[in-house]
Design brief:
This protein has five helices and 13 strands. With 242 residues, it is α+β, with helices and mostly antiparallel strands. Strands 1, 2, 4, 5, 6, 8, 11 and 13 form an eight-stranded antiparallel sheet that branches. The protein has a five-stranded antiparallel sheet with strand order 3-7-12-9-10, with no helix packed on it. The longest helix is centred in the N-terminal third of the chain and has 31 residues, at 3-33.
């Protein structure tokens, strides 16, 4: 093999390796977040009591919310989402109620854990967010991503639910059975979303459901691969409207 050919092969190999390296965190996220794996049981989803902030102007909170377009995200989700910066601007009372060490500790007790940690908006703007489900909105089956060194749990708190609502939290348990978990206003569920495959059913005409979602961790710190995967997640969320 002559010199130019060797050089061409080396360049091609370097390009292929670079592409593979860039795709690796995206592939890891797809495997952990979407491919079916062992799930938990209904009893693993814990229900707790919560005190709600005032919600008299709740619809005004979503003026700066982002509408998720299912035509851009492979029919994965349709809803309006408000992340931490939007919550801080429109409804800081939600942060005061649910993004606190006291709330994290209450969730930890419900799960039988010694403690749970919150993430900060500086690390992840999705550390807490709101979702609004109106007619046609839904969230397909998935697992929550976890970039931390510890175990990630998720708390879901309904803030506003109409009588017509058909948007419900459902899960597929370890025996491949669909379980409907009704969460009334004044309650919250806490669960290991990385382990439990879950979804939100479609919303009917005239129905509306607004929830707060909080991420909780046994150890919120990230190693280099977790940071790399989070970088890939952030790109995916922006491009696919997730």
């Amino acid at each position: 093999m002559d010199g130019p050919t060797v050089a061409a092969v080396a360049v091609s190999a370097a390009i292929a390796l670079t592409l593979l390296t860039c795709l690796l965190p995206f592939l890891a996220n797809y495997i952990t977040d979407f491919l079916p794996k062992w799930s938990g049981f209904r009893e693993d989803v814990k229900l707790i009591d919560v005190d709600l902030p005032s919600t008299t102007d709740i619809h005004e909170w979503f003026v700066d919310g982002v509408k998720k377009d299912p035509s851009r995200n492979f029919q994965h989700s349709s809803c309006t989402k408000l992340d931490h910066p939007g919550i801080e601007k429109a409804c800081p009372c939600v942060l005061e109620a649910f993004h606190t060490p006291d709330f994290a500790q209450r969730c930890a007790r419900a799960l039988g854990l010694q403690s749970l940690q919150l993430n900060s908006a500086e690390v992840d703007v999705n550390c807490i967010f709101l979702r609004r489900y109106v007619e046609g909105d839904f969230l397909a089956f998935h697992y929550d991503n976890n970039f931390s060194r510890g175990v990630r749990y998720t708390a879901v708190i309904p803030l506003h639910v109409t009588d017509e609502n058909t948007s419900e939290f459902i899960m597929i348990d370890a025996k491949n059975r669909i379980q409907i978990i009704h969460i009334p206003v004044g309650k919250a569920v806490v669960y290991n979303g990385w382990q439990i495959r879950h979804a939100i059913t479609g919303q009917c005409k005239g129905g509306e459901r607004i929830v707060a979602v909080v991420h909780l961790y046994t150890d919120a710190s990230m190693n280099w691969f977790g940071k790399w995967r989070k970088w890939a997640r952030d790109i995916t969320y922006r491009r696919l409207s997730l």
